[in-house]
Every structure is written in structure tokens, then in C-alpha cells.
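Entry 14. Structure prediction run on the chain below.
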Amino acid sequence: MINVDKKFILVLTVSFISAIYFGGIAVYCAFYAMLFISIIGYIYISIQKYYVTAEVKIGDTIYTAGDGVECLIKVKCSFFLPAPYIVVKSLSYLESGSGHKGEMVNITKEEDVWIRNYIKFYHRGIFDLGTMELEISDLFHIFKLKKIIDCSIKLKVYPRIYEIIRLPVGGKDIYQQAVDIRSTNEDIFTIKDVRRYNFGDSLKKVHWKVSAKHGELFVKNSDSISGQEFAIFLDMNKNNMNMDEYGQKEEAMIDLCVSMIKFMQIKNICTKVFVNTSLSRCIDITSKEQFDALMDFFLTQKSDGEDDIAEYLYKKFYKLQRNIRIALITSRVDEVLCNNISIIRNYGYNITIFYNILENDENIILLSNMGIECISIENMLHSLKGR
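Output returned:
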């Protein structure tokens, strides 16, 4: 689309009317000069529409929150006439945090101009960095052409997975609790001899007698864990997006959640995840495929829940058996949440709270007196190694 400067049209119209009604060499010269400039400008901008192009170069298309990437934009003019005014607008400028929406460049004949932007992804999502808008103007800024270029480059930024060595839930490492085969009461979730074959397992570990009996492959795996052993309640209330400028606190909650689930997967512990979104979800994670599907879910799902986490937890906890340990990942710990957790605690449930914001220290003291451990999400993630 070609836009024309309204002031120039007004001046051209006035000069035309003056030439008709008043005449005179000076008036006619001014009118024809402006008319000639406008014709040349229109022809120039129409030609540049086909000869000015741009492309984006990025190393990879898959990243995790917190990663940085250099985005290269190449603007090229393949016509023998220069392009004096080109404004390049791209999502990369907004994501770079520079405060600019674009950059103006001028290109001499048959020249390439490279623009470098360093982008840090503070939050997960799908980013379209391949779509650009070029605003091309003639020398007198009479005509302006907007050209959209789509390089079909979409970057996927997933939640960051931290390497958890120990997960202290209820004052004891959850894995050690699950595999404590010396306990007086045998854990009903522990299989000391075999487990079902998973893709990638060595055939040398196959227990052929058990496999023949059941008609499917089983492998030897002393102290592997099966069954629902761990539950996570994730607070995704819509107010989470207002905790900080870039949404990093909300992102930290998601990072901790997927890191916990990954830790459970490595230990062969099944996990049930309750997500407090606008459409409440309860997700069972028992395989790598289900974990990958959860990562894709978090890729686009933002905090949009209507229910307060205290209300949501109180409505859902009864679905779990009392011997299952619960991790609550929440944006804040307030008085209402403390009251509801005390009720749930009295039913015999073991809960550990991971929080972003404390309204006051009294809440932590109250929960600690009930034997409920409260851990800062920021402190937890700072002690871990991200990948």
C-alpha cells in the first residue's frame, strides 16, 4: 500500500488552484515543479517495491526461557538507484527490550545492510520473528510504501528445566521416601524386581520368564517406582502476570513445576498435576510423551485462572489419597491460604509450599508450627542448575 503525504496534497492543490485563477510564470513553475516531483516520486516508490527486500537469520528455532539469541536482519536493495529512507519494523525490536519499534536505514545502490539485535526471552511462548514491515519513502517523503515480508521463522521458547538432585518434600527427599525398602511397612508403589519395558531400555535387562507369563516385555529394575506417588498444585491465576514487568516470577513457577515433574520421571515416579487455569486441568504424567505434551501445553498457556489458589486447592485435594505427598506452587501465601491448608493438614495430607510472595512472616510461622515446610521459589531455583 502506498500512502501520500496529506500536507503535500494540500500544497499541490493550492498551487493548482492558484495557477488556474491567478496565473503567472512563478505560480506555474511552482505547480509544475511539484507535479514533476510527485510523478518521479511515485514511479520511484513503485519500482522500489520490487527491489527492496529483507530476510532474517537466527541460529535455532527452539529455546528455553532465559536464553538469549542474536537476530540478524538483512536489508537489500537490488536496484541501481539508492533507497534513502527505509524503516525496518520487527518483533525482534520489541523483544530486545531496547524500547524501539524499528530502525531506519539508508541503502546505496546494490548494497546489503545488516542489523543486529540481541534478544533475551524472559518468558515462554511462540515468537514470530520472521515477519517484518518495511516502510520505504522517496527522497522528499511524499510517498510511503509499506511492505510486509514473511520469512516463516517462528521460535518456540519452552519453560526452563532445572536439574534437581534432591526434592525436599515434607522434610525428606521424595525419592528416598519412595524407595526405602528397609521400612517396616512396604511401600505399595515400589516394585523391587521388574517393570514394563520402555523404549530405549537394554534388551539385556529383559526378564524373559515374567515377560512370557504376561505376554509383554518386563525389565529388571530393582527399586523402580510405579503408580501415583506425587501431586503438584500449580497456581495459574490471572493476577500472576502482574507480579513483575517481564512476567519472570510467573515463569519461575512454571519452571519449577516442570523441573519437579522431570525429576519424578527420572526416578520413575508418576505425577498428577492440577493446573489452576480458566479451564481447570488435571494431568497425569506417566511417560515421556505425556511430559512433552505438557511442555507444549505450557508453551502457549498463560496464567488466566479465575479461582484463587486457596479455593482451588480446597475443592480438589479430596481427589488424592492421604499417603500421596503434595507440592503447592503458588504466587503468594496469604491468610486465606493458610486457613485452608490447616484444614487439609488436619485430614492427614502432607503439603510443602513453594511461593513467590509472602504477605507477612506470621503466615510462615503459622504453617511451620503445623509441620508444613515453605520454600521460596527464587531461592529454590537459584540453588539449582538450569539447562
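The chain is about 35% helix and 35% strand.
Filed with the rest of this week's runs.
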